[in-house]
Amino acid sequence: MKKICCNYQFIKKKIQDIIKDNNLPLKKIKIIAVSKNQNINTIEQAILSGINNFGENYLQESIFKIKKLQQYKHIKWHFIGKIQSNKTKKIAQNFSWCQTIDREKIAILLNKFRPKNLLPINVLIQINYDKKSTKNDIDTDQFQKLAKIISLMPNLNLRGIMAMPLMKNNIIANNLQYEKIKIIFNQLKRKYSSVDTLSLGTSLDIKESLFATSNMIRIGRDIFNR
C-alpha cells in the first residue's frame, strides 16, 4: 500500500506544482486511477490510499471488481473502454460515469437501461477533435447534435468531454490539438449548465492537458506500477 500511496501523492504534487508554477486558473483536479488488469487487493490498497475514482476498460473484469468492493460506498467507477451495444445494460446498472459515448445509439441504450432507483449516469462524449476519424471517436461535426440528444435524456447527465490526443512529432501540431479540445469544451460549457468536466490527460501529457484546462486526469501505470 505504501508504494501506491507514495505514487498517488507524487502525482498530486506534480499536478499542483504545474498549476502553481504556470498560474493556471484551475482548482480541483480529479485523478482517475486506471485500474484495468489490477487485482482486488491492489485496488483496495488504492482506496485506502485515498483514491476515490477508478477507470475500467473491460466490462466483465470490472463488474467482478465492483461487486467485490461494493462495501466502499464512496467509490465512483468510470467506464473508459470501447462501448458495444451489448455492454450498455451492465454499464448503466453498475457505473457512476461513462466517459466514452461516441454515438446516439449508445446514449439511447444507456438511458433506457439506467435503473430508476439510481441517479442519472454521468456521461462524457468522446470526441474526434482533429477530424482524423478512428473507430472509437466521433466527428466534431456531429458533436453538437449528440450533446443535445444526451441533454434531453432523463437518465443521462451530460458532464463534458473525454479526449485522447494523437501525439505527433510536431510540438505546434500537438498544441493545436489541445487548443481545439479546449475550444470545444468551452463551447459546450456555455450551452449546457451541467457541463463541468474535461477528461483529458494521462501520465504522458499531464502538463499539456492542464494547459488545456483539463480537470480530470486518467493515470494508470504511474499509480500502480511506478
From TrEMBL:
<dbReference type="Pfam" id="PF01168">
    <property type="entry name" value="Ala_racemase_N"/>
</dbReference>
<comment type="similarity">
    <text>Belongs to the pyridoxal phosphate-binding protein YggS/PROSC family.</text>
</comment>
<comment type="function">
    <text>Pyridoxal 5'-phosphate (PLP)-binding protein, which is involved in PLP homeostasis.</text>
</comment>
<keyword id="KW-0663">Pyridoxal phosphate</keyword>
<feature type="domain" description="Alanine racemase N-terminal">
    <location>
        <begin position="30"/>
        <end position="222"/>
    </location>
</feature>
<dbReference type="GO" id="GO:0030170">
    <property type="term" value="F:pyridoxal phosphate binding"/>
</dbReference>
<feature type="modified residue" description="N6-(pyridoxal phosphate)lysine">
    <location>
        <position position="36"/>
    </location>
</feature>
<protein>
    <recommendedName>
        <fullName>Pyridoxal phosphate homeostasis protein</fullName>
    </recommendedName>
</protein>
<dbReference type="InterPro" id="IPR011078">
    <property type="entry name" value="PyrdxlP_homeostasis"/>
</dbReference>
<dbReference type="InterPro" id="IPR001608">
    <property type="entry name" value="Ala_racemase_N"/>
</dbReference>
<comment type="subunit">
    <text>Monomer.</text>
</comment>
<dbReference type="InterPro" id="IPR029066">
    <property type="entry name" value="PLP-binding_barrel"/>
</dbReference>
